[in-house]
Amino acid sequence: MHASWKTAGAALAVCLVAGAARADDVADFYKGKTINFIVGSDPGGSFGPYAIILAEHMPKYIPESPKIIIKYTGGQSGGLQLANTIQSVMPADGLNMAMTQQTIVLNQMLQPQYAKYDARQWLWLGNMAPVRNMLSLWHTAKAQTIEQAKTTEVVIGATGPSSPTYIVPHLMNKYLGTKFKIVTGYKGAADLNLAMQRGEIEGRGASWVSVQLAMSKEIAEGKIKPIVFASITREPSAPDVPTLAEVMTDPLHKQVAEFLSAESDFGRSVFLPPGVPEARVAMMRKAFEATMKDEAFLADAKRLQLVIEPMSHQEMARITDKVLSAPKEVVELAK
Question: Is the whole-model pTM more than 0.90?
Fold first, then answer.
């Protein structure tokens, strides 16, 4: 055998042995362990079902099949507190993964004084589905359209100023002249639904899928309807409802609306904190990708009426970089 072939063969053998050793190390690490899945919302809305089916099916693709335990931290302030914890406190050992409010990357630009994290450093596993935020009105609201809301006050419930439940109606007040009175302090989607049914508020934002899951009967009866979507594309189940960018008339305001609507691409994305060993990150990404194709996982999603439109970790990193590189003028106006 030629000397160069001998050298190449030896190098390949070393690589194969090293790869097998890394795989064994990963398997040994996860043996008998539990993975914490930290979710920046309450159990209501659509975060809960997405988290549950992922936690149920992903372990089969992780060495030694460690159990995944879900821990909810609430969605107040768009998950800022959780994001800060992920960045600086959460152990970077591969035993902690997270899913938080889809506004969290935008908030790094919009609220730098509170955002003590850098989403560029997060280790994305991928996204289960984009989630389109919206503003919807209850059937007893004094206004039922955007035009009517320009002359009539409507009480809208929200969790906090950095949440889409607040951002969408606030932006419409600022640039369209609507008169939404925004009341903050609600804990999450379930809390907002209850407040609306009780008559405390006349409308609510957040993801449309959370309304579809919790209030399908009310949607069918016309008791609640979306009037605008904060998304890049229109919602397939409500194709006649415009996007936030579409209702803006000023070109710069359209850019701001598009910037803020980029959050829909983060949907139900999952990531690891910075610093997790490379071999464990690679394994977790492979496990996430395999779960998105798992027949039992997809069957559960269908049963729960959850849309699954996976996005890769590479795509999540690309979108993150794009958002965090937005023109200063657009970001300052969005603030």
Answer: no
